Every structure is written in C-alpha cells, then in structure tokens.
Amino acid sequence: MSMSLFERLGGSEAITKISSDIVDLHLSNRSISNRFAKSDVNKLKKTVSEFFITGSGGPNVYKGADMLAAHKGMNISAVEFMAVLDDALEALQKNGIGQREQEEVLFILYSMRSDIILV
C-alpha cells in the first residue's frame, strides 16, 4: 500500500511548518498581504495547518468552513488566487518537499479555484 500525501509530506509536524511558512509568505506578498492585514496570525496558521492536514489525508482535524463559504463575498481575483499558489509552492520547496508531492498539493489547491475566485 502506498503512503498518503499526508505521510509523504512528513505528517502533522511538517505540514504545520509548511503552513506557517505559507502564511508568512502571504503576509509579505504585496499581491495579497492586504487580505490578511487584520488577521489573528496564530489562528490563521492553525486553521491553514488543520485544513492542510485534513486535506492531505491526515486526521480529520479541520472544523472550519468549506472553501466556498470561507471565501464568499471576498471577490478574490485570479491574480490573487495564483499568488496564493505561488506562496504554497515556495513554502513546499523551502521545506524540501519532493516534486511529485508539490504537484499533488498544487493540483488539490487549484481544484478549489471555482469555490474561491469571484464568489
């Protein structure tokens, strides 16, 4: 039996580190940083980590809203969406995640596009 994406990413501890790096990159990304200006950074990192852990096949720890509900009314542009994906890729690379896993994560994130952009 092959390992899950969750396992190949290094489990909860590694995904928590990647998620923290993603949020840090979002906060410094001029294309999207204004979206996070008033955020509770620690809560945001926890939520992103839980979403990522659950979404990659780990324990079901995410209790937040689905993507459509979470982004409804935010009017997120395609440029902003791609900035998020770019930050995710950079964080994955920074944490030494393999090419196959990077592609899988980006595929999963991209599959949520219609629930995020201009909803």
From TrEMBL:
Q: Where does heme bind?
A: H71
Keywords of this protein's UniProt record, alphabetized? Heme, Iron, Metal-binding, Transport
Task: Report the domain of life of the source organism.
Answer: Bacteria
Q: What Pfam families does the record point to?
A: Bac_globin
Q: Name one GO molecular function term.
A: oxygen binding
Looking at the keywords, is Transport present? Answer: yes
Q: What cofactor(s) does the depicted protein rely on?
A: heme
One of the GO biological process terms = oxygen transport
Protein name (database record): Group 1 truncated hemoglobin
The organism of origin for this protein: Vibrio diazotrophicus
